[in-house]
Amino acid sequence: MSSAVRALRRAAPALALFAAARLAGLLTVALCSWYVGEDPLARLGGTWDARWYTGIAAHGYGQRTLTFPDGAVQSDLAFFPLYPGLVAALTALLPLTGAVAGLLVSWSAAAAAACGIHLVADRLYGRRTATALVVLWGVLPHSVVLTMAYTEPVMTALAAWSLYAVLGRRWLWAGALAAFAGLARPSGIAVAAAVGAAAAYELWRRRGRGSWRIWAGAGIAPLGWAGFVLWVGVRRGDPLGGYLAVQNGWGSRFDFGAGAPDFVRRLLVRAEVLAFPVVMVTVAVALVLFALLLLEDRPPLPLLVYTAVLLLITVGGSGFFESKARFLLPAFPLLLPLAHAMAKARPGTAVVVTAALAGLSLGYGAYLVTIAPVPL
């Protein structure tokens, strides 16, 4: 029996539980959508960012720009190309709408991500922790995104498999997958950073006498992200600053979290929609979990760098506070302290905790998709 088949057999219980959680989430969203008179397919595959992605898939870049009274301009150049490229390829091969193709890409990527997450955790900590990690990732409050036409499942899948390749010293695979992750989302640079850090440590450990594959993997890793950013810059007439200007139009820039305290003060002074306090708590919990991960679990360098860079980008970036919890979905190593605790808990306790988290995830996910008045 090949190692791949053995790995899939070991992951089967976790993948089955993950699939059950996401199918339940899909059914809950569908029922709530029908109750409020909405089409579930339209809500999952054609709202907010999904509309931009399917538009790029159908018509290419430069076809949609929004201009606001204050002069702000939102361009489709802010969206990275891998996901709309996959949607376009699927619609070219099959008689599907962009929304349906986007959902199929996301659902397939979510399954691949769950498998990759299990492989990483199983290799490092064993099957029980790996199963707990996959289940926890599948019942996060914002895990409804895994069943929407969004890019987080694709990036997480590429990140998990790249990290697994790094742990196995398969440098070319790690670099190639990191390059694709860099084409999926702006935060995909975190995968390249993890591959680069692991390669640098390996070269230092070998006193510079490493294989050419280490150099090649580290060199390939950032090419996807850097290539798209440079392409947007050239298209805007400013190779180095063009993409940053596009992001500024969306109110997104890296300010080291300077704007977060003011937002939190406003949140505490006046009532806001449910999504804002949930995101605030989610980000705070993520910071605590990162401290626990650093102090107690001491994960391998690639996982630590990947998680740290993702957390830094999310916390240090301004704009769209309501989306920060979604931005953290690919940071699955943050859940390792909880997965360790779940793996050590009695079966009854683990079942009760998982059921409670699943109930929260299903209800809150349906709220985000069908009721919440803010972008997800």
Short description:
This protein has 376 residues and is mainly alpha-helical.
Q: Helix coverage percent of residues?
A: 55-70%
Order of helices and strands: HHHEEHHHHHHHHHEHHHEHHH
Structural class: mainly alpha
Distance between the termini: 43 Å
For the secondary structure, the number of strands is 4
- Our count of helices gives 18
Unreliable spans are none
Strands in their spatial order, largest beta sheet: 1-2
Which outline best applies? Answer: globular
- Overall pLDDT confidence: 89
Largest sheet: number of strands, sense, barrel closure: 2 strands, antiparallel
- What fraction of the residues are assigned to beta strands by DSSP? under 5%
Query: Rg to the nearest angstrom?
Result: 20 Å
What does this protein structure show overall?
The structure is a single chain. The chain is an all-alpha fold and 376 residues long. 70% of the residues lie in helices and 3% in strands. The chain has 18 helices and 4 strands. The protein has helices at 3-35, 40-45, 49-59, 82-93, 98-125, 127-138, 152-167, 171-182, 189-205, 212-220, 223-235, 242-249, 260-269, 275-297, 301-316, 324-327, 336-344, 347-370, and strands at residues 65-67, 73-75, 253-254, 317-318. The strands form 2 sheets. Strands 1-2 form a two-stranded antiparallel ribbon. It has a two-stranded antiparallel sheet with strand order 3-4.
